[in-house]
Amino acid sequence: MFDVWLDLDKTIWNCYSESEVWAKQLEFPFKVVDSQRINAANGFCEVHEGFDSFIRNPQSNIKSFNIITAGAKYHTFLEDQPSYSFLSLLGYLPYISNMVFKTKEFIKGDFLKQLNNPNIILIDDDDKQLDNARKNNVQVIDRKSFKTWKDINL
After folding, report:
1. Cβ–Cβ contacts within 10 Å for residue 79, how many?
2. Which H/E stretch holds residue 64?
3. Which one-letter DSSP state was computed for residue 15?
4. What domain range includes position 84?
5. Choosing a second label site near 9 at 20 to 30 A (CA), which of 43, 61, 74, 100?
6. What does DSSP assign to residue 17?
7. Is 75 a member of any domain?
């Protein structure tokens, strides 16, 4: 049974203003358009194809879903983080066991190694985070290695 740790930006969704931006750059108020899109005052966020089904109908070998991001806004409470709001508005919070919201200096592999759990899988798009996790003997899946969440099989 795997404990899956998920990055957010460019892993489960992409956000846009005039160009692609991080979720933390989007501004309140947020409004759900449908299960794949949230509008913001200055842009929108789109969930990657198949992710909604992936998290709501987990594969039998998944023990837990967890969030780990280095994309948090500085000096901002969890409940005021745009990414947290998106997870809540999309109805994903009941499916998430743990959340780690840190700023860009955060190294995910160092944190995950401390959990001392050989059944962790990190799914991320950032090569530096993936490389560090590998060096810390954490199993990884590069988000760039599959087209849609329908294609992933753990």
Report:
1. 8
2. strand 62-69
3. E
4. 2-13+50-151
5. 61
6. S
7. yes
Domain-located, residue 103? yes
19 in any annotated domain: no
The string of DSSP codes covering 108-148 is HHHHHHHT--TTEEEEES-HHHHHHHHHTT-EEEEGGG-SS
Mean pLDDT of 137-150: 97
Phi then psi for 36, rounded to 5 degrees?
A: -115, -10
Separation of alpha carbons 15 and 83, rounded Å: 10
**Mean pLDDT over the full length of the chain:** 97
User: What gap in Å lies between CA 26 and CA 85, rounded to an integer?
Assistant: 11
- The Cα-based distances of 69 to 6, 17, 33, 135 in angstroms read 8, 20, 24, 19
How many domains does the chain divide into? 1
Domain presence at residue 33: no
For residue 103, the domain's CATH number is: 3.40.50.1000
pTM score, whole prediction: 0.96
Paired strand residues for 4? 65, 121
Return d(Cα 11, Cα 141) in angstroms, integer: 10
**CA-angle at 46, arms to 41 and 50, nearest 5°:** 160
Q: Give the tens place of pLDDT for each residue, 101-134.
A: 999 999 999 999 999 999 999 999 999 999 999 9
